[in-house]
Amino acid sequence: MRIAVLALQGAFIEHEEMLSSLGVETFEIRQLSDWQQPKDGLILPGGESTTMMRLLEDLQLLEPIRDAIREGLPVMGTCAGLILLDRKHLGTMDIVAERNAYGRQLGSFHTEGAVAHVAESVPMTFIRAPYIKEVGPDVEVLAEIDDRIVAARQQRQIVTAFHPELDNDTRMHEFFLSQVRS
Question: What is the pLDDT of residue 108?
Fold first, then answer.
């Protein structure tokens, strides 16, 4: 199995390390030629969604990534990656994200919560995190914290408002890999 990790900015190295600990090969997407490599899935990491969108457009990666996801490429988007997949950006997932929903950096926090199909208690680190304020009929809500949707799935797309790559718990990545294998 080989997973591409968008490496334009943000927390991409932590995803690579998490996947490596699970015995999964990764490679970084920094330009269009990187995208041409064979891949079984894609990670869209946290970072700054506006910057990432601009870079995706400038590097001519936006359309190829969108097309691959629409054709069924499994993808996991965390924090900014969640925002990238919503209706207003890549538009591959029928969700609407509320950016910086928990305030600025000082509004960052850590908690635990249940995630459907994963576990009763999963560590969740939120850093200037979004939440999902609206989901379409084909979207499965996976987790809520304080009545806000913080994880969801649509077909082979999984998103989290939190950063599973910043904790030692590998279960969210394992769940993503199970979608890749299916």
Answer: 84
Please confirm, yes or no, whether 15 is among the known catalytic residues: no
User: 25 catalytic, yes or no?
Assistant: no
* pLDDT of amino acid 58: 98
Q: CA-based angle 5:11:17, to the nearest 5? A: 65
Q: Quick check: is 163 catalytic?
A: yes
Per-residue pLDDT reduced to its tens digit, 54-72: 999 999 999 999 999 999 9
Catalytic residue (choose from 14, 79, 89, 173): 79
Q: Give the length of the chain.
A: 182
Residue 21 confidence class, pLDDT cut points 50, 70, 90: very high
Question: How far is residue 16's CA from residue 104's CA, in Å, rounded to a whole number?
Answer: 26
Catalytic residue among 14, 15, 16, 165: 165
Nearest alpha-carbon partner for 85 in 142, 156, 32: 156
Q: What angle do CA 46, 3, 5 make, to 5 degrees?
A: 30
Name which of 87, 179, 100 is nearest 136 in CA terms.
87
Which of 32, 118, 29, 111 has its CA nearest to residue 75? 29
Tell me how crowded residue 102 is: count the other CB atoms within 10 A of its CB.
Answer: 20
Mean pLDDT of all residues in 89-114 = 85
- pTM here is 0.95
**Angstrom distance (rounded) from CA 40 to CA 179:** 10
